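Course assignment 3, question 2. Fill in each field.
Student: A.L.
Task: Predict the tertiary structure for the chain below.
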Amino acid sequence: MGQPNSLPSADVYFEAIRNGDRTILSRAITLVESNRSDHQEIARELIEKCLSFSGNSIRLGITGVPGVGKSTFIEALGTHIAEEQNEKLAVLAIDPSSSKTKGSILGDKTRMEQLTKSNNAFIRPSPAGDSLGGVTRRTYESIILCEAAGFNRIFVETVGVGQSETAVYHMVDFFLLLMLAGAGDELQGIKKGIMEMADAVVINKADGENKEAARKAELEYRRALHLFPLGEDGWTPRTATCSALTKEGIEGVWQIVLEHHEELQETGWLEKKRQQQTVHRLHERISDILRSGFYNDAEIKKALPEIETRVLNGELTSYSAADELIRSYLA
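Answer field:
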């Protein structure tokens, strides 16, 4: 393990992860999330070692409106998979705000008491950091580590709203949008772009007096989804209702995910989709590196406040100011 205060080598992490050591897996994910250069160096080496042992999972992205019951849904679906199906499940939660608020997703974890107790489940809440590039890199690398540890079912949950959904869409096989009935106009308050990304729209809390409202909401979403053109993979987005509380409809939701996975494997689209996602990550990483390099440049840090003041005073347009800064950076 090296000197007392030194980090374990990538080989030590790798062997422990492959042997299913969850404590070391957690530490490895912490390493991936760290911005320290020595941590990043070991993390990169570890990811390279794990890559050939990854990819053999179903990656499911889950998002939804506030109050939709995501934690209860994830626990219900996760328990079905981990306990009834006896599959190994990793739940990775992303919260773009958690680096400031500290613990909103940790709160979700404490509510998943039954799933947390499962020997087949691993739940990891993670702050996204300061950029969506951080979301993509850290979560994708966490997926690789979990797959190398033998988890063949991966949930990626978005806790925040907005662009984080797009980031998750580009790292999962199936994108599930969880919605509610009886919250006014069913098609209001949800971005068209998120609807277009969805492989399934599931109406939760379809129990008791809310059952009929949930059924009507499902019909609304089914009609709405038919207005969108089919994706390249040819999959027709599905709709369903469920009650995470009573577990009714949960197995049916998972069947939709399995059907999608089987269909995309048969047509070759699963491999193609993941290849497209890899190229997407390449371009995102390039953008992230360039952005970070620009804003951390000593000359740019020095010049930026003055340039911003000139823009605010109307002495420069934002376009001219940006061009001036870029020319200075590239000089």
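Instructor remarks: The chain has a mean pLDDT of 87. The two ends are 45 Å apart (CA to CA).
Grade: pending
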